[in-house]
Amino acid sequence: MKILLGSILTLAMIIIGIYIYKTQKEKHSMVRTVGRTLVIGLFIVLCNLVTLLTRYEWVCLAAYSLYFVASCWLVYYLLRFSLEYIGRRFEDYVKRKLMLLLLFADSLFVILNNVFGHMFRLKSVVLFGGEQFYELEITWCFYIHYAIVLCLVVFSLITLFYGSFTAPTFYRKKYLTIAIITTAITILNIITVSSAIDVSVAGYVVEAISIYYCAFVYTPQKLLQSTLLQVTQDMSIAVFVLDAEGRRLYSNGFAESLLVEENPYVNAEGEPLEKWCSRKYREVGEFCEEQAFSRGEDEVDLRIQLQQIRDKNNQAQGGYFVLQDRTQEIKDLKQEQYKATHDSLTGLYNKDYFCEEARRYLDKYPELEFLVICTDIKEFKIINDSFGMPMGDAVLKNAARLIKEEVNGAVVTGRIGSDVFAMLMPKKNFKEEFFTELKNEDFLRGVEKSIAFPVVTHVGVFEVLERDLPVSVMCDRARMAIHTIKDDYHKRIAYYDEKLREGILKEQEFVRDFDQALQTGQIKMFLQPQTTVDGTLLGTEALVRWEHLEKGWIGPGEFIPVFEKNGLISDIDRYIWEQACKQLKTWKEQGREDIYISVNISPRDFYFLNVYQTFMELVEKYEIAPKNLKLEITETAIVMDFNRQMELITRLRRNGFVVEMDDFGSGYSSLNMLKDLHVDILKIDMAFLNKAKDEERSKKILQMVIGLSKQLGMPVITEGVENEEQVSFLSEIGCEMFQGYYFAKPMSLEEFERIYM
Ligand code: C2E
Ligand code: CA
Ligand code: CA
């Protein structure tokens, strides 16, 4: 019998030992309390084992007293555990020091029993047919100790029962479990405490296991599970779990709404969502990808992720799908992308995206020949300014429509500037008629009022010969071609070619070199004499020349149009005017105040300079007579802003300047205008007359102009006079001043002074 009981107790110790070990592995705030409770439990069983097996009375007596001491401490820890377990602080309920004092006193009281025997003594009994056991003979003192222990137990039980009634249902069970087990052990203990065989020991094992289970296993896992379920249930992402065979174990609300079997969501190939998922589950393992599914009109973009669940040995146990609804996000993204790549007014690609798409196209079809075509609406600003922005917008929309729908063959189209559209078109598709046959009505479709303004598009064509060129550069070149037709009403289409390119490069070089040229004296004033019919010098016209370091002498015909475009012309003019004034001052000092210098004023100068103030300052600075500085203003400059120019001219004349009207007959002027032109001298260029086919007729016109101007008191100077015949004719009809190669070519200042001074 002793062997059987001994074995049971040993087994109990092993089991409790295992749970002590397991407790140490846990990461939980209660590890210490649970661990100590279990260790004391183990010690109690050990003491019990000793009392059972020993033959020596004093050993048995000592083991019993230790057993009682330990049981007292056990209940103490049980109480601590109970309080902690229901989430209270032990110290809040118990005066810890007082309690410890009581327990130590009790322990001492029990230990002293070994000496005084005041609590219990041993009585040897023979049981089960001859085996010797010790039984306790208890005195009333024992009950003092017992009362302390019971008080603690009751306190614990109250705590646990209280906890189990006040706790949420979920916790109720676990408090109750421990409370009931503790009660059972206590009752067993009360019954068997004085008998030779204490069966309550078995209870300790059960209690140890249940405490461990309740503290570390039951609460966290069950709680976690139900919390997770609740969380996943409410989530806006769909979650469903599959077992190893691919059967659905769990799915949250959202997943269920997506996975409905009747009328399911299907992908582009018609495969239902759940089938698709389980196929992927079987075939792919873990993955994450985006897929669009639809159910009738209803479309969803899902980000689908499969995660596998593996056990400790890395064996697949199943997996779970996480489906995120990205429909709105993708819609927003697409919208944003659209906004970033399209022009909001016309819906065509914007510049960057046009370039990107055109590049893709060029790369995709390397064998095809392409054109980049740009269109520019002539004087679009006038449409906007005179007819209002809505009209401008309507014209642009129509232009975009025409380019997209009517101009066949463009593969990529875009709006790359306010009124500039671009196309990429295979060369074989291109027909000039696409553009030349566009009519005003085409641009005004849907516009209620018509406008008395011709909407004309200019078209620049660039043939893509160097494919590696950035598309933006191709567009620039097509647009450069457009610039060559700016003022030609009948010409609508221009092609970019090498000549154009060279011209543009040369222009760029001029602009690049200009500053240095002006500072280092490469810009020079040449002089061309103006004489009487017999060659007597009257004065001279200042004409600019550029002595370029690399290119040599360059005439103004080459660089002036470039600088007129960007306004640099006024720097040149300002420079030449100053050179002229300086020279007049020198001559004045040499006593030659009889010679004048005529300077040219570009129409652009009126925008970039205060012409009046500039001249006034110059004559003052160099102390020269204004009459010696003649001012040549072209007819075009005057006509451009007639009233303002006339006012300016009047002011200059009033200050003593002599104003000449240059290139008379080259532009819009009519004889009729002569009477309103209050200038001092009329300058007629023979070159314009020579151009005319009917020589007789032009001679008559010339005769009339000269006659008329004489009547108006305006002397005439004729330039471009090249031969004797011209000279005699001109002097016959009353011209008294001449300038031309016949008399002298433009020359450097040094040469001029050598010949004429
Ligand atoms: P323009 O003011 O009409 O100047 C007269 C042009 O006719 C000069 O050409 C001159 O060299 C040229 N010429 C003179 N006699 C004859 C002739 O018998 N036969 C022919 N075929 N041509 C003759 P250039 O110097 O090349 O100047 C061209 C134009 O450049 C000028 O025409 C003027 O409009 C402009 N220009 C020249 N210098 C300046 C300047 O300093 N400032 C501005 N704004 N324009 C200038
Ligand atoms: Ca001139
Ligand atoms: Ca002229």
Concise overview:
By secondary structure, this protein is of the alpha/beta class. The chain is built from 29 helices and 22 strands.
Structure description:
The protein has 757 residues and is α/β, with parallel strands linked by helices. It folds into four domains: 2-221, Up-down Bundle (Rhopdopsin 7-helix transmembrane proteins); 230-333, 2-Layer Sandwich (Beta-Lactamase), CATH 3.30.450.20; 342-496, Reverse transcriptase/Diguanylate cyclase domain (Alpha-Beta Plaits), CATH 3.30.70.270; 515-756, EAL domain (TIM Barrel). Helices cover 54% and strands 19% of the residues. The strands form four sheets. Strands 13, 14, 15, 16, 17, 18, 19, 20, 21 and 22 form a ten-stranded mixed β-sheet that branches. A hairpin with a 3-residue loop joins β1 (120-127) and β2 (131-138). α21 packs parallel to α23. It is elongated, with a radius of gyration of 56 Å. Bound molecules: ligand C2E and calcium ion (CA) (2 copies).
